[in-house]
Amino acid sequence: MAFESLTDKLQNVFKNLRSKGRLTEADVKEAMKEVKRALLEADVNFRVVKSFVKTVTDRAIGQDVLTGLNPGQMVIKIVKEEMESLMGSEMTELVIKQGNEITVFLMAGLQGAGKTTTCAKIAGQLKKKGKKPLLVACDVYRPAAIKQLEVNGAKQGVPVFTMGDKQNPVDIAKASIEHAKENDNNIVILDTAGRLHVDESMMEELQNIKANVDVTQTVLVVDAMTGQDAVNVAKTFEEKVGIDGVILTKLDGDTRGGAALSIRAVTGKPILYVGMGEKLEDLQQFYPDRMTSRILG
Ligand code: GDP
């Protein structure tokens, strides 16, 4: 990730705030106008920007900030706190069942978002933690997807369950749970089919899997580089299928940051991980505080 433009602009605003010994309400409002512009240019959701700026302004003007020591510094602190809160404040982990119970992750997302790669990345991380994951090829529409999962699974040393491309995804998912029980796998990762755009049949398929399999968490994979499109996709999936969290891929190539800053606020669901490259180890847990520090520079 390189949100240079956003970071530069916010740092400029902060420099101005710090340079003033005393701040008036007008100074704060002027600074917030610039923050607003910077966030909009970074492709942050319009409503999110509006509410963020309002909260920061109210806090900065309402409390004893302006009459206290270092008002500039205090305003900057408020921006930082509100930005962390926008992204969820705390790091959120995938929920994993204890003991011998099988945890099932339903992985969803549009074609090309990085779903198959991310499934393998997660499987590798869970394996390192001592879990026994099983990757499952439920994308029966793209034969290449099955092969891709097999190749990536092999690289991670994680078994891949497939039934070819002639079965329906619900049957594959059900059979994979039985397979996991028989083979001592305690985590099942279902790699489902994506489409180029959100469509009804994709949503129905996910709903069917959820209705027939005891899914522990539904995780949506979206491409950070698509900005507000990623946010809209997440909103639709949340409404139609219900999701527990989001993985934001290709953050390494994202120069703006709009998706990272909007998704939590728009969908109410946390970012669980971020993809930082094509390699299978390039998956990082998402910490709102660290992300805020990187954005604010
Ligand atoms: P799917 O169609 O959603 O299953 O997407 P794939 O897993 O096939 O990924 C599509 C492309 O995105 C591949 O070329 C991946 O290597 C690439 N990709 C996935 N995640 C990341 C990431 O975090 N960063 C970068 N730079 N590329 C990624």
UniProtKB/TrEMBL annotation:
Q: Which family does it belong to?
A: Belongs to the GTP-binding SRP family. SRP54 subfamily.
Which major enzyme category is it?
Answer: hydrolase
Identify the domain of life. Bacteria
- Can the keyword Cytoplasm be found in this entry's annotation? yes
Which GO terms of type biological process are on file?
Answer: SRP-dependent cotranslational protein targeting to membrane
Name listed for the protein in its UniProt record = Signal recognition particle protein
One example GO MF annotation: GTPase activity
Does the record bear Cell division in its keywords? no
State whether it acts alone or in a complex, and with which partners, per the record. Part of the signal recognition particle protein translocation system, which is composed of SRP and FtsY.
Q: Native species of this protein?
A: Anaerobutyricum hallii
- Domain-related comment: Composed of three domains: the N-terminal N domain, which is responsible for interactions with the ribosome, the central G domain, which binds GTP, and the C-terminal M domain, which binds the RNA and the signal sequence of the RNC.
Q: Which UniProt keywords apply?
A: Cytoplasm, GTP-binding, Hydrolase, Nucleotide-binding, Ribonucleoprotein, RNA-binding, Signal recognition particle
Reactions catalysed according to its record: GTP + H2O = GDP + phosphate + H(+)
